[in-house]
Q: What sequence folds into this?
């Protein structure tokens, strides 16, 4: 184990820069996982982290101690004093453990699959919303995620925490040219728009679908919406004017799941 007790330690400065700088994460291709849940998810789906960073008090927590004692081959373990660790933590109550990982590469490579069910994010800027949408996408069986250049970073620590390990079940493509993708997509691109005439519950969702969700304040940009073949609204009988984008995405994705299950087994559904 390597122990760090000073903020002036060169490696501590490297860790701090990696946590605080999106540019540094992009340059290195690395990401930081905060907490045992994310580390366990990464280990199940992707393999062994590059480095484990643990606080003094974290080494005494049973779950963390058990993980450290498991003897992960090739993993560097760095121990920080609690104060130093807290300065790196992304939440008010530090988890006690972090991992440095290589970001997984999409299985199909850097180019998107033009026939796969897809979630397209157009300017979604809140990391919590991006993470929540990734979590819903993974649960609904949508593997491919495309993000426009002005979205929150998919591999930022706050996004990772909100997604709860969903990243490792998805192909996440950032800085995408959304108009180019939608123009070439072989399935049906669908945008959610407040003023759309077609209800989500009456829309044709057969075949591959690319769901397009827009920014928190402006929604889907007109130039992007114009490239979708279908625009739908989510019926809202209550007094609210709109849904949070993460909630809207969950509604749309699981309506797609429900519709496909119903069409696959109409007799079973009809019989209850």
A:
């Amino acid at each position: 184990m390597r122990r760090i007790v000073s903020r002036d330690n060169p490696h501590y400065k490297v860790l701090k820069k990696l946590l605080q700088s999106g540019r540094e994460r992009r340059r290195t291709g690395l990401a930081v996982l905060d907490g045992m849940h994310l580390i366990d998810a990464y280990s199940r789906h992707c393999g062994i982290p590059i480095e484990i960073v643990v606080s003094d008090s974290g080494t005494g927590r049973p779950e963390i101690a058990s993980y450290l004692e498991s003897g992960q081959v090739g993993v560097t373990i760095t121990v920080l004093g609690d104060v130093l660790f807290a300065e790196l933590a992304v939440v008010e109550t530090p988890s006690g453990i972090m991992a440095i990982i290589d970001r997984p590469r999409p299985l199909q490579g850097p180019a998107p699959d033009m026939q796969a069910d897809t979630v397209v994010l157009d300017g979604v800027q809140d990391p919590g919303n991006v993470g929540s949408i990734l979590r819903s996408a993974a649960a609904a069986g949508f593997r491919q995620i495309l993000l426009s250049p002005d979205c929150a970073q998919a591999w930022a620590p706050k996004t990772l925490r909100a997604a709860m390990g969903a990243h490792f079940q998805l192909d996440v493509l950032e800085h995408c040219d959304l108009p180019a993708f939608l123009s070439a997509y072989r399935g049906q691109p669908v945008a959610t728009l407040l003023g759309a005439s077609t209800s989500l519950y009456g829309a044709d969702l057969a075949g591959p679908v690319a769901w397009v969700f827009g920014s928190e304040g402006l929604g889907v940009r007109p130039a992007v919406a114009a490239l979708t073949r279908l625009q739908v609204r989510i019926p809202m009988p209550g007094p609210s004017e709109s849904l949070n984008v993460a909630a809207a995405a969950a509604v749309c994705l699981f309506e797609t799941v429900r519709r496909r299950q119903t069409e696959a087994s109409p007799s079973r559904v009809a019989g209850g």
User: Anything to note?
Assistant: The chain has a mean pLDDT of 93. The longest helix spans residues 245-264.
